[in-house]
Design a protein that fits this description.
By secondary structure, the chain is mainly alpha-helical. It is built from 9 helices and no strands. 77% of the residues lie in helices and 0% in strands.
Length: 199
């Protein structure tokens, strides 16, 4: 029981998340179904709180000069995450529509992809396209388990750039489910391979 609880807790910790929890579960011999379920639930647990509370919390901390350096660092991390999301959604867009031209700079791509709060003068179709790209970028950012990505950073980016809460939550959930499958297949495949060669 202790191992199951530890796997659940590891999946909630920033940086580790699924990338750390599922390999740990595989190494400890937990059934892959339990490992997947525990880590997905654990990884998703902080997401609603991040999406709902982070902007308010950061504004409060700045107003009262509480750990402003930490807030600045997290906002810089969110900016980097937004750029990665823009790159990934840009690649996906180019695969489906090669005739469209990419934004000139990474910063422009981040703004167009992540920030759905478009001016009222912008056509509805463009707003919808920007929302779709933001969703796709966030999904890919969370789904591909690489260093610096994941549910925590993805939710932070979505919250600070004003994505719609339900859209951001759905994108993160789908990304976590996908990342969980990738990490489970990779981790348990490696463990099985070691067992075969150890015989």
């Amino acid at each position: 029981m202790k191992k199951y609880l530890l796997v659940f807790l590891i999946s909630m910790i920033p940086i580790f998340e699924l990338r750390g929890a599922i390999p740990y579960a595989a190494a400890k011999g937990l059934p892959f179904g339990w490992a997947y379920a525990l880590t997905v639930v654990g990884n998703m647990l902080p997401v609603p709180f991040i999406l709902l509370l982070i902007p308010v919390l950061f504004a409060f901390m700045r107003r009262h000069h509480i750990l402003v350096g930490v807030v600045d660092w997290l906002e810089r991390k969110a900016q980097k995450g937004a750029k990665k999301m823009a790159k990934r959604s840009g690649k996906a867009k180019s695969e489906t529509a090669e005739t469209e031209t990419a934004p000139e700079t990474v910063d422009e791509a981040a703004v167009e992809t992540v920030n759905e709060a478009a001016p009222a003068t912008q056509p509805a179709e463009e707003n919808k396209a920007a929302g779709t790209l933001a969703f796709l970028g966030l999904y890919l950012f969370v789904a591909i388990p690489l260093p610096g990505t994941g549910a925590w950073t993805g939710s932070l980016v979505a919250a600070l750039f004003g994505m719609k809460k339900w859209r951001a939550f759905l994108a993160v959930l789908l990304g976590v489910l996908t990342a969980g499958v990738i990490m489970t297949l990779a981790s348990y495949g490696i463990v099985s391979a070691f067992k075969i060669f150890a015989k």
